[in-house]
Design a protein that fits this description.
single chain; mainly alpha; AhpD-like
Length: about 150
């Protein structure tokens, strides 16, 4: 792929704002496992190899298993490997990432409301929004996977 601009070098204040969102999410009460599943699933949908590579490595370091990570894209068919909480977050991630289709459905929102607090739902939505922004930065600037 052709090398493109480096937004961090060209517009460092933009990255500073993105890292502020990451700082907020680091303090969120939703688990690191849920955050990584959000990042991986959204990145798969957005075909962001850079972020898939980064967040699968982070999930492994956090104690997740290779088998579960291999199955994230097929979580419905592999539901026994994911808790009800994780399945709900994966569904939210898909619906919000693919917002042009129907957005976050009433059914999914109701399910999430029965599992998570309002604060947790807000944190989940912000995690989904943030990784989608990072995906768009990485894909549009051709960020390369590091060895």
């Amino acid at each position: 792929m052709e090398k493109r601009i480096n937004i961090n070098s060209t517009e460092p204040q933009a990255y500073k704002a993105m890292f502020a969102l990451e700082g907020y999410l680091a303090k969120a009460e939703i688990s690191k496992t849920l955050k990584e599943l959000i990042k991986i699933r959204a990145s798969q949908i957005n075909n962001c190899a850079y972020c898939i590579d980064m967040h699968t490595k982070d999930a492994l370091k956090n104690g997740d298993t290779s088998q579960r990570l291999f199955l994230v894209s097929a979580w419905r068919e592999a539901a026994k490997f994911f808790t009800e909480e994780e399945q709900t977050v994966l569904k939210m991630t898909e619906e919000i990432t693919l917002i042009h289709q129907n957005g976050l459905s009433e059914e999914t929102y109701r399910k999430a409301s029965g599992i998570f607090s309002e604060n947790q739902i807000a944190q989940i939505i912000m995690a989904i929004v943030t990784i989608n922004a990072w995906n768009r930065i990485a894909v549009s600037t051709h960020l390369e996977i590091e060895d």
